[in-house]
Fold this protein.
Amino acid sequence: MKIRKAVFPVAGLGTRFLPATKSMPKEMLPLIDKPLIQYVVEEAVAAGIEQIIFVTGRTKRAIEDYFDKDYRLETQLRDSGKTELLKMVNAITDMVEVCYVRQKEALGLGHAVLTAKRLVGDEPFAVLLGDDIIEAPRSCIGQLIEKYEKYRCTILGIEQVPMEQISSYGCVAGTLVEPRTYKVSDLVEKPPVNEAPSDMAIIGRYVLTPEIFEIIEKTKPGRGGEIQLTDALRELERRQAIYACQFEGKRYDCGDKLEYLKATVEMALKHPQFGKPFGEFIASLPK
Ligand code: G1P
């Protein structure tokens, strides 16, 4: 079955990015001139996703407004002949079909995914976490979908990280079956370094089979007292094969202030309009 739907859990409070996120969703922080969430939506659309399901929470209204039509703005741009800006604004709302469901309590990533159960239905689907911005020659979730088309089962996006960072991630162990592809044999959410089965971290990209929902329903709170998606995946692995794909591309954890700054600088340096003058500005800074 084709992967048509993508779940975007965006209910998180963004505490790592306070105070900027006190009254604004972290997903709306701008990277150059677009909010973070738009990069991730564009990645999904490039992979052929037709419907995006945002799992939202309080204080996330700005995301709904962003993907909705703004007739007042459109009229003003049309009346003042700003056709290029009008096209840009319309492109955001025309990009893809979106729908929203509220996660009423912050009970964890597994719970957020479960909240989308009725909207997803009985079909495989993608999950994209908005903190991870991935610059890649081909859409990162598209790379996972290609693997899904080959293996017809759950596919996790993974990246090798320095061992001392593994406790910040879900960790997978497995056997290499082809370049960049592992058959998963173990999964642990945020293990202490000395208990981690590998240095392979799950990043915020998944293709999941719908069997995950009934497993999450029975998953008890795990690390941090939250219902963890990784714990449900561990159970899923006992019933179905899971593969992990070491994606091609560069990931920035834009929920982290320093990584966000690095993403801003590196992407600005490559930007078609600002790249050259920005590069000159950086070069002119006192050492
Ligand atoms: C979540 C998942 C974790 C994964 C990470 C990727 O953790 O629980 O397994 O490695 O996303 O970003 P969080 O970063 O929400 O704590």
Q: What stands out?
A: The radius of gyration is 19 Å.
